[in-house]
From TrEMBL:
It comes from the Bacteria. NCBIfam families: cas_TM1812, CRISPR_DxTHG. This is TIGR02221 family CRISPR-associated protein. InterPro entries: CRISPR-assoc_prot_DxTHG_CS (IPR013383), CRISPR-assoc_prot_TM1812 (IPR011742).
């Protein structure tokens, strides 16, 4: 793996003694000192027109690893973007990079941190160090050399935390946590929450979410300075996913359905429509079963009876072929199973409920079949219909007393929540 040093050249060289890892090194510019203690494959010396004369100090070394890279001074946005373009141009995929910001003028040190963040993401670069020869902190004539790369590592925690909050993907965050023994349990919990959210597994998500707060709090005591931002960000994570937490979901059917609805809101708010529609269909069956007999059925035969009951009501009046005579006729109340007949006879909103249910698998199929349908809908229409069917489902849940009226139906145009 190529190790590249990127150094910025100043315009006022001065003979300085630098102290690095307990040893002393001399140099008129910090790059001269780095030649003595740093192992690398090439050094890119970013040089403004004003620093051309200073470059001769390095040029005289006759070191083939050293390459001069002319850059603008950085007086305005255009020039700063010019510096950015020059740096990115010279760095290849997968390199190791060390930045030296000792002689960087104006905004250069700030840009170096942005370079590091961008290169790690865009070119899979490994950041070895961000070195600063602290001339302003001289002690007994010696300037200490500081490695500021730990502060760049803060960006990893911020980005990983934001990715988890916005998408439910905790892989990057779990990797960062798992690097410390005391944080591995929190990493495992995050992975469990993430996997359950991604795969639309509400029972697993609710159970795993109950461990999230205590595991993150225990891990917090071992956070290093580089992961300190996560100790603050974790509060936001706990706040969001605590809404889904339920120790024994199936022992409390109403709370289970309410948390499922929270999941639907979260899916819609974060653009995960397939999961939202998939879960909405199951929530309708859960809600009908709960209203009918105060429990949620997960056994296949019992759940299938509710599915046939709801879908049967939706089919009333539709043409079918009689199983006995083979003749065409309309699906009637007599064709309903026992549960369907009782619901149809006693629930005033039975037909509206069944119509909502019938639309859910239709919309789910539009998404899950990945446009491999001759009669596929435009995505804009799919979104509009999802909004409508979820609003209808919301109304059923409020009418049946499962959701409080203060809840709001999610909209497909909702901005993702933090």
């Amino acid at each position: 793996m190529t190790h590249t040093v990127i150094t910025f050249l100043g315009i006022r060289p001065q003979q300085t003694t630098y102290r690095y890892e307990g040893k002393k090194y001399q140099g008129q510019v910090f790059a001269e000192a780095m030649l003595q203690f740093l192992t690398f494959d090439r050094m890119l010396v970013l040089t403004t027109r004003e620093a051309d004369l200073v470059y001769r100090i390095l040029e005289e070394k006759n070191d083939p690893r050293i390459k001069k890279v002319p850059i603008p001074t950085g007086r305005d946005d255009a020039e700063m973007w010019g510096i950015f373009d020059r740096v990115i141009e010279y760095i290849q995929e997968g390199e190791e990079v060390t930045f030296d910001i000792t002689h960087g003028l104006r905004s250069i040190p700030f840009l170096a941190f942005l370079f590091a963040a961008y290169l790690k993401s865009a070119k899979n670069v490994t950041l070895r160090a961000i070195l600063y020869g602290a001339l302003d902190l001289k002690d007994n004539g010696e300037a200490p050399v500081l490695d500021l790369s730990r502060f760049a590592a803060m960006l990893d925690w911020i980005n990983a935390s934001d990715q988890f909050v916005q998408t439910g993907n905790a892989n990057r965050l779990a990797q960062l946590l798992a690097s410390v023994k005391e944080q591995k349990r929190a990493a495992e919990t995050l992975r469990a929450v993430s996997q359950a959210a991604f795969l639309c597994q509400p029972v697993s998500l609710m159970k795993a979410s109950t461990s999230l707060a205590p595991d993150l709090m225990k891990a917090g005591a071992s956070f290093s300075y580089t992961s300190k931002p996560f100790s603050v960000l974790s509060e936001n994570i706990i706040h969001i996913f605590d809404e889904f937490a339920l120790e024994e979901p199936l022992d409390n059917p109403m709370e289970f359905i309410r948390r499922e609805w929270k999941m639907i809101e979260w899916y819609v708010g974060h653009g995960q429509m397939l999961q939202a529609v998939t879960l909405a269909r199951e929530v309708m069956i859960d809600a009908v079963a709960f209203r009918y007999e105060k429990i949620i059925q997960l056994k296949h035969d019992q759940r299938a009876s509710f599915e046939r009951a709801i879908s049967g009501i939706a089919r009333l009046g539709q043409p079918i072929t009689d199983e006995n005579s083979g003749e065409q006729r309309k699906f009637s109340v007599d064709d309903l199973n026992r549960i369907g007949y009782q619901i149809y006879e006693t629930w005033p909103d039975a037909e509206c409920m069944a119509k909502t249910f019938a639309n859910l698998p239709r919309l789910r199929n539009q998404l899950s079949h990945a446009e491999h349908q001759a009669d596929r809908m435009k995505l804009s229409k799919v979104e509009r219909e999802i909004s409508k069917v979820l609003a209808d489902l919301y109304q059923r849940l409020v009418t049946w007393g499962i959701l409080p009226p203060s809840e709001n139906p999610p909209s497909t145009s909702t901005t993702p929540k933090d």
